[in-house]
Fold this protein.
Amino acid sequence: MTRVARSAKRSLGQNFLVDENIQRKVVAKVGAGLDDEVIEIGPGRGALTKHLLGNVRSLILVELDDVLADDLKTICDERANVTVIHGDVLEKPLAKLTPDPSRALVVGNIPYNITTPIIFHFLARPRPKQIVLMIQDDVADRIVAPVGTKKYGALSIGVRTVAHVERLFKVGRQAFRPVPGVDSAVIRITPQVPSSMSQFEEERLRRLVRAAFQWRRKKLRRILRDHGDLGYSHEAMVEASERAEVSLDDRPERLTPSQFISLCAALPETERPSTL
């Protein structure tokens, strides 16, 4: 694959991965073979793409940059198993990219400014088989943060209640051009199959977790009772906490992802604040 030579666009948060060893290492962590379909997010100048070409059954490249998308189309024009999609990946549901989302492998060196939206975009149903992403090192730390630490929060729980996450390795900023102001890390997200919750249960859980960490320094009792998105009665809180074996005197950061799932399941579905 001929390298596409052009400067990065700051407006798109572009930092091109130029370290060949890191490129190969990321692709190796995807573990894709000749029977696999891979979706690459923001292939840019083809740093990862060139290591995937010819080694997978099907390759789908989603690139927002006008010039880079055109260059990729030119380079890949004669490859029947490569599709270049020019557009914003956040506007492309997985089911629109592939006929079999559950078998797709997703990989990408993604812009720091849209890391969280991209992660949750691909954790929306239907989910891929696996997601390998190069992201900001600090965000990777937040996703895998231990319970009770300062970095543990809504992002940690939002990902880990629907998927298994591994922090694979750190990547220094010198591996990119232009050089970013922070280091990066590669993570692997493997969605649960089958999911332990229904879509409705996941939506309820997100509402609970979001509210809890908006008031993370308050105790659960206060959050469940007074937060505008919750508003549970004293009786409902006590019964749910007993069923879930969770103390209402704990703060959100003390609850594990599984405890949040149990608490949410124990809270009444019909009870809502009057403003909703």
